[in-house]
């Protein structure tokens, strides 16, 4: 599979103006690859270095050291080709309120030097489901439509890589679902997606692989499935018939929390005890189980584990 993006020992240091001494290490020797056709998640807490990373790709921030290669082009040798290979969808909605989607896309294509005969404005509007609003004022579009229009703007020069920076920030559940359907359709026709988001469930559902950055360091890079396998603890809530809350419950490496007169929550390391052993122990205590709720953990648990101080 072709490499869409590769960075090697990428670093960015911000210096103090007066003393010219290192002030902030925004990125520390980041090395990673994004494969063609995948949806790649770039996650991290605020101030982790994600924006700096994307700004280097966009050409608005100059790296301190390291190599960046985008779609076969070296950032130092071919900066224009690198920028032409990426479409960046910003977090902020920055649209001219009095331009229609069609005019905005035509103008954006012109800024990239796309000739009139090579413009695919109508095709892009269909891809993001905005063909019916092609000639409406942008100010009259809904929040979800404006988000989709930002994606359309980033695609006018047909870049093979699309970067989505917090694309669903402030978008309601239904519009978020529609937006992700659009993104999946773009990915299915071959567009490589790089995604940053604070909605970790979103990343868990969408991304093939995920990189997690914390304080400028790359602390994890793996498939979503393997990252989820890092979760050590499992939590099970048992709904029971009323029982004596003073009941003494003990098993090695297992925490019992009596939540109410008919509920017990059990937390334990996955490999320390089997589910069958737990059930047998509760039955030995003459507890009648009515219902079971299992929490296997999610990407948020992995994220907190890797980024906590």
Plain-language structure description:
- This protein is α/β, with parallel strands linked by helices and 309 residues long.
- Among the domains are: 1-82 and 193-229, 3-Layer(aba) Sandwich (Rossmann fold); 233-297, Alpha-Beta Plaits, CATH 3.30.70.
- It has helices at 50-58, 79-84, 101-111, 121-127, 143-154, 173-188, 200-206, 224-228, 275-284, 299-307; strands at 3-15, 22-35, 39-43, 65-70, 73-74, 86-89, 161-165, 192-196, 209-214, 217-223, 233-240, 254-260, 263-269, 289-295.
- The strands form 3 sheets. The protein has a 6-stranded mixed sheet with strand order 6-7-8-3-9-10, with helices on both faces.
- Helix 3 (101-111) packs parallel to helix 5 (143-154) and helix 5 runs parallel beside helix 6 (173-188).
- The longest helix is centred in the middle third of the chain and has 16 residues, at 173-188.
- The radius of gyration is 25 Å and the shape is globular.
- The chain starts with a strand and ends with a helix.
Helix content: 25-40%
Summarize the helix and strand pattern as letters. Answer: EEEHEEHEHHHEHEHEEHEEEHEH
Named CATH architecture of the domain at 1-82 and 193-229: 3-Layer(aba) Sandwich
CATH classification class of the domain at 1-82 and 193-229: Alpha Beta
Strand content: 25-35%
Continuous helix count:
10
Could you name the CATH topology of the domain at 1-82 and 193-229?
Answer: Rossmann fold
Give me the count of strands.
Answer: 14
List low-pLDDT spans: none
Question: Which strand order do you get reading across the main beta sheet?
Answer: 6-7-8-3-9-10
Ends distance = 37 Å
Cα-atom radius of gyration: 25 Å
The secondary structure category is: alpha/beta
Mean pLDDT over the full residue set = 89
């Amino acid at each position: 599979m072709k490499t869409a993006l590769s960075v090697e020992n990428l670093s960015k240091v911000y210096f103090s103006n007066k003393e010219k001494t290192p002030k902030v290490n925004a990125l520390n020797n980041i090395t990673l690859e994004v494969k063609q056709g995948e949806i790649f998640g770039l996650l991290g807490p605020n101030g982790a270095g994600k924006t700096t990373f994307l700004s280097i790709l966009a050409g608005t921030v100059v790296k301190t050291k390291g190599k960046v290669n985008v779609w076969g082009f070296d950032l130092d040798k071919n900066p224009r080709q690198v920028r032409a290979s990426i479409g960046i969808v910003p977090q902020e909605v920055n649209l001219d309120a009095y331009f229609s989607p069609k005019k905005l896309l035509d103008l954006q294509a012109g800024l990239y030097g796309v000739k009139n005969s090579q413009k695919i404005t109508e095709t892009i509007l269909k891809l993001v489901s905005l063909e019916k609003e092609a000639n409406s004022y942008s100010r009259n579009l809904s929040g979800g439509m404006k988000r989709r229009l930002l994606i359309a703007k980033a695609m006018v020069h047909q870049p093979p890589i699309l970067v989505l920076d917090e694309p669903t920030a402030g978008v309601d559940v239904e519009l978020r679902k529609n937006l992700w359907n659009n993104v999946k359709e773009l990915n299915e026709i071959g567009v490589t997606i790089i995604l940053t988001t604070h909605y970790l469930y979103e990343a868990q559902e969408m991304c093939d692989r995920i990189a997690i950055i914390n304080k400028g360091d790359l602390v994890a890079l793996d498939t979503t499935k393997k990252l989820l396998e890092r979760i050590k603890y499992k939590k099970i809530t048992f709904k029971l018939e009323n029982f004596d809350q003073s009941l003494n419950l003990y098993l090695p490496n297992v925490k019992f929390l009596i939540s109410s007169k008919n509920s017990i929550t059990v937390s334990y390391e996955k490999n320390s005890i089997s589910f069958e052993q737990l059930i047998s122990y509760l039955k030995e205590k003459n507890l009648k189980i009515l219902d079971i709720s299992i929490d296997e953990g999610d990407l948020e648990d992995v994220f907190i584990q890797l980024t906590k101080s």
